[in-house]
Amino acid sequence: MKESRAALRYAKAILNLAKESGNETLVNDNMKLIVDTIAESADLDVMLKSPVIKAADKRKVLNALFGDKLDNIVKGLFNLLEENKRMVMLEPIAKQYAVIYDYHKNMKVARVTTAVALTKELEDKIQAKIVALTGNNASIENIVNPDILGGFILRVGDVQYDASISSQFNELRREFDNGHYIPKI
């Protein structure tokens, strides 16, 4: 609990700096890149959490890994975490930043369940459907579940739109079970 409060304080400070410089969207993209990179690399995660490796060495690895891809505010965060010996908090800070950024921009998280991973084209179509349903944009979180067979299930806040093939099959099954189907023989 104490660590999450500290991560939130760091994230708020970073958002305030980013807003002053007008780079909050770029910093948000940087934070997503950091979270994704740590999630993909178990070695990086272990290195950041290791008490044996010096904070200066961790910062050097992060600077070498990300190079010029990151905004100066994020690079400054690396330096600050090194000084305070809190490199272990990099991932929670990045996650908290994304949450408060979305709140700041009035963006909701849309959970889209599909049978296969979303392509960019499908994300654009789903974003259009989100705007049609809610009137606002949302960040898309894709959940892959092969059990839905095809189509998608979209959930934004308390609104759910089910366009999956499995739900259509279930609807047909209910119609057959209720006797609404009349064969034409």
Automatic annotation (TrEMBL):
The protein's location, in the record's own words, is: Cell membrane; Membrane
Q: Which GO terms describe its cellular component?
A: plasma membrane; proton-transporting ATP synthase complex
Q: Which InterPro entries match?
A: ATP_synth_OSCP/delta_N_sf (IPR026015), ATPase_OSCP/dsu (IPR000711)
Tell me one Pfam family matched here: OSCP
Q: Name one GO molecular function term.
A: proton-transporting ATP synthase activity, rotational mechanism
Query: What is the membrane topology noted in the UniProt record heading this document?
Result: Peripheral membrane protein
Keyword terms of this UniProt record = ATP synthesis, Cell membrane, CF(1), Hydrogen ion transport, Hydrolase, Ion transport, Membrane, Transport
The record's comment on protein family reads: Belongs to the ATPase delta chain family.
> So what does this one do?
This protein is part of the stalk that links CF(0) to CF(1). It either transmits conformational changes from CF(0) to CF(1) or is implicated in proton conduction. F(1)F(0) ATP synthase produces ATP from ADP in the presence of a proton or sodium gradient. F-type ATPases consist of two structural domains, F(1) containing the extramembraneous catalytic core and F(0) containing the membrane proton channel, linked together by a central stalk and a peripheral stalk. During catalysis, ATP synthesis in the catalytic domain of F(1) is coupled via a rotary mechanism of the central stalk subunits to proton translocation.
Task: Report what the protein is called.
Answer: ATP synthase subunit delta
Provide the species name: Tenacibaculum singaporense
